[in-house]
Structure formats: C-alpha cells, structure tokens
Amino acid sequence: MRLNCICRICGKHYQYVYENSVSIGNHSKNVCNSCRANHRRFALKDKMIAYKGGHCSICGYKKCNRALTFHHLDPNQKDFNFAGNHSRKWEKIQIELDKCILVCQNCHCEIHAGVTDIVSRKDPK
Questions:
Q1: What is the pLDDT of residues 2-31, one digit of tens each?
Q2: Fewest CB atoms within 10 Å of the CB: 25, 33, 65, 71?
Q3: Are the C-beta atoms of 67 and 60 separated by less than 8 Å?
Q4: Whose CA is closest to 100, among 119, 118, 123, 124?
Q5: Do the beta carbons of residue 36 and residue 23 sit within 8 Å?
Q6: If we measure between CA atoms, which residue out of 38, 43, 51, 33 comes closest to residue 97?
Q7: What pLDDT, on the 0 to 100 scale, is given for residue 125?
C-alpha cells in the first residue's frame, strides 16, 4: 500500500510504501528519507565535535556546530573525508578525528591561505 505523505520537517511530498504493516525503504509516515539522513548526519557531527572539545582550537568559536570543521594536520595521513562517510563505524571515525584539529570556517580558511600557522600547534583535546 502507498500513502501520500508530507514531511513534517521540510514539507516535501513523498510516498510512504508499506506491505503487511512493514515499511519498504527508509521513509516513515512523518519524515522523508532526506530529513531522516540529515538528522543522523547532524547527530554524528555533534558527537564528533564533542569528541574534539566542542570549540575551535584556534579562536574558541562554539556558537554554531555547522560552522565548525575538522582540519587534518598532515594531509598525507588522511584516510577519508568526513563528508559522505556518516555510515562508518564510530571507532574508524575516532581514528581519523585523532589526526585532526577542530576549527571554525574562518580559521580553516586562514590555515589554507597561510595566514594562520598550525605547524607548532598541538591539539588541546
């Protein structure tokens, strides 16, 4: 059976498909797949940010988690990007996080522009 539903988060129209009271796919009756995935990704990023101390290791910024990012101290040691890898095991993510510092977007841009030097900086975990 198919139900035409509207996501309570984003307002998108979608079809909830189920057979014998069992959902087919990842939709729920109230939330679309995209919003369910976003919720999982945001929850994981919050956990990752908490693991790294909760604030920019350079300037201390902590107002908005979406403005915080992870900078690999040695790009040659980087095994994967965090974006798109929200289904990895937490243990693997922790190993990768240990190679990074938590920085805000402004400090991250300054690092890549050569304005801020982090070579001698240690991660204040």
A1: 789 899 999 999 888 877 665 666 667 888
A2: 25
A3: no
A4: 123
A5: no
A6: 51
A7: 44
The total of other beta-carbon atoms located within 10 Å of residue 96's CB is: 19
Instruction: Decide: 73 and 96 in contact? Cβ < 8 Å.
Output: no
Domain ranges of the chain: 1-31, 42-125
Strand partners, 101: 71
Secondary structure of 26-86 as H, E, C letters = CCCCCCCHHHHHHHHHHHHHHHHHHHCCCCCCCCCCCCCHHHEEEEECCHHHCCCCCCCCC
The pLDDT tens digits of the residues spanning 29-54 come to 888 888 988 888 999 999 999 999 99
* Ramachandran assignment for 60, one of left (phi > 0), alpha (psi -120 to 50 degrees), beta (any other): left
Summarised one tens digit per residue, pLDDT across range 66-86 is 999 999 999 899 999 888 888
Q: Which two tokens stand for residue 101?
A: 């510092």
For residue 122, give the 3-state DSSP assignment: coil
